[in-house]
Structure to design on (1000 residues):
């Protein structure tokens, strides 16, 4: 069965700015989904902020194995209950790929327990990504290093918990470095942050970037859907015999 | 200079139930603070949920190096903005010690990015904690294993991110195990979760438990106060010379 | 293509002691391999300490995706160069599943950089394993907890580096706990340690134990074969233009 | 009581090459020890490869809280038993600071369980180190970034296990990046790797480099000396009552 991907797009710059429209005529989300749909075993669709419940209804999430998230201008417009719903789905097993300025999305900050702050500069400088974990599934088919001629700079310190695995580090022409590809398990779900993707450069048309995202989707595919909870195990159902001691305020 | 500890107490069971009053006549928070105040180099005070801003005003937090948190019955009554304020302070360097049922507090769940769910049973059974990381600062002076004659059971799976370091694992008489002492760095701050401490047993009168909490306070003391942010580094201030390419939507 | 598993057996107790022969008439390694060979997509063979180069020739390793290792009585008889060869293969991508008393094997200690010490008791007591990471690939199809009626006890502290992911924790009837299922990435390879499997109990006939090992094999399958090295990048081949400064002792 | 530091120097280039003598007239180890001895609370001495047992007798190690290690030309001349002795001391609590080309030392490779391979170029290019973990003890008093005008380049992939905490990442003028400051716990001991320090540049005269090493020494100071082992716990000494089942081959 195919991996069912939902590509979430904020779709604000894409609608508002000719510069972005020229690069992504059908929106950034469409470009990402179209690339994923060329990969055998992946079936991607798009939803946007403007859709009912931002396109992230319970039904859509029921049918989503991996969600990708790009946002920038309108993080604050995402409803808190929808962000909580998405984060809860990740804990239950759904994969999440957070792209570029999605670092400041409610969903990512919530799952990281962090501010996800960073330095930045918009100068269209050269970015070179180095593969630091060549055996990682997300690095398969990706060269030892690859370049994007023009990108926004993100610099350290990046306000994230120590990644479970660091996959890429970026070198920037202007002198900075950045942890550009990093993974975390959250509950039964997997999260991958991937840095490139500023709206004014054709990053999502780059073949290596597309390959990284497709690899990440395959890596983040759920193993299961795990329902958390806080079940009480009564004393008379304990696995070993127990005599109850003490009182209770319940 | 002393480590300034603020012991936060929910102070609900302590007020409402004679059973708890009998064990902790001045409240659980007072018992914890009194124990800490016997340790040279630690100066602890208490605040409670019922205080103005739950006792966690900006001024109190300015004067707090390490915060300890016990709550159970009234997690929902903690204001969201105060929980966010406390979590932000941790990212900036304040230490946080989360005790027992504080696992479901807004502050802990927020910093973990997780549901912090678990199994539980209130039967006053025996708990034996094993030190699995004997070189860790929090384990110093703590034996290879120690027992609490009567405690509530918490069982796995515990809904937390993989700890940075696991310090204690509990064995329960009824047949369960639990990751009872675990650490995480969050930003410039350190977080320690410590399982024991059910309100109906005299756990915070136990000398080894007191020693663990004092060790954790010393370990969680801030190295610095780090102010995060998202500063822009203009192209003409870049560390290496840059020529700007491309446009911007800003 | 099938995952090619080589099951390494020390094959000393199996030959020497009737007690072990009664449980594993064709050796423990054969029992493990036979179980794996019932799983679609896995093709397992056995080699033993007594074989030429302990059965771990370069050619055998060329044809091995995942190696499982059980040893106890004769760790010292494994040649250092063969242990180094196996560890090197793991760094290059080969998966490794270390079973029970393999904790003290040269290969495991070498890859951990640790002594891998632990407590132990041979009393045929009850062991109950708890799944603490229910979303992990190795935990799929494994219940929340499962029991082995009679096993050797291993207790903490276990002398290992902090695992990348902890999957199982054991509860022992005699009062101990143990980190019984743990994973580490080493280079391009993955390592899983799984505790149960004392030679005098029929542990490898247990269906859940077999399932864990099969899951671990699928999880440890290499993504790639990565050849490490220390290549020099001459100044005139640098990615950015450089002027050489300073001298050299080379 | 002061932290007792033993600065280990390979002392080969320092003796053989005028270029190195000009920068470090009394050897690189003396330069490092002299800097540490200016720090209140640290008392450093030097030993070298050429000393009896490389200067690392049991008695010297008994009196060592933290060992620093610089080697390059003569890793192979370090006796295996001495490397094993040092690694064992780390597991028991001794701190270890591995400097620059010490990445390929027997001691570091042994503790990492890894090849510690990397790319390299000797061109005297600019290195800029970024602090990615500003709340870490080793980063205290270190700026957000600092530069070394002329250094050897080390590039990724660096053949190490995922660090417990990453503290510094380097940007190189020639286009590479490197994980230049990283920590690992090994047993009761702490290990810090710090990249800068090529013998033909005056790196250990740099004030920020000196400060990093001093911070690392303070961080790596042992909490305790923990004696590992594999003790048997007889059934009749179990913490919970046990009836022995099954036989034994012992």
């Amino acid at each position: 069965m195919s991996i069912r991907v939902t590509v979430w797009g904020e779709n604000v710059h894409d609608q508002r700015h000719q510069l972005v429209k020229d690069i992504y005529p059908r929106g950034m989300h469409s470009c990402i989904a179209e690339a994923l749909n060329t990969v055998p075993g992946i079936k991607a669709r798009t939803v946007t902020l403007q859709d009912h419940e931002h396109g992230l209804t319970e039904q859509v999430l029921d049918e989503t194995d991996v969600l990708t998230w790009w946002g920038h201008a309108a993080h604050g417009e995402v409803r808190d209950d929808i962000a909580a719903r998405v984060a809860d789905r990740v804990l239950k097993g759904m994969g999440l790929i957070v792209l570029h300025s999605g670092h400041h999305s409610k969903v990512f900050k919530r799952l990281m327990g962090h501010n996800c702050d960073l330095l930045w500069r918009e100068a269209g400088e050269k970015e070179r990504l180095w593969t630091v974990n060549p055996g990682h599934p997300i690095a398969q088919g990706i060269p030892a290093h690859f370049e994007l001629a023009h990108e926004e700079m993100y610099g350290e310190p990046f306000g994230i918990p120590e990644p479970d695995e660091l996959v890429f580090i970026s070198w920037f022409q202007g002198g900075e470095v950045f942890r550009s590809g990093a993974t975390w398990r959250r509950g039964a779900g997997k999260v991958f942050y991937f840095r490139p993707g500023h709206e004014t450069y054709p990053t999502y048309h780059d073949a290596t970037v597309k390959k990284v995202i497709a690899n990440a989707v395959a890596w983040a595919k759920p193993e299961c859907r795990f329902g958390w909870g806080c079940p009480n195990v009564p004393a008379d159902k304990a696995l070993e015999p127990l005599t109850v001691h003490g009182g209770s305020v319940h």
Summary: Chain B touches chain A through 65 residues (CB under 8 Å). The radius of gyration of chain B is 20 Å. Chain B has one domain: 3-119+178-237. The first helix of chain B runs from residue 13 to 16.
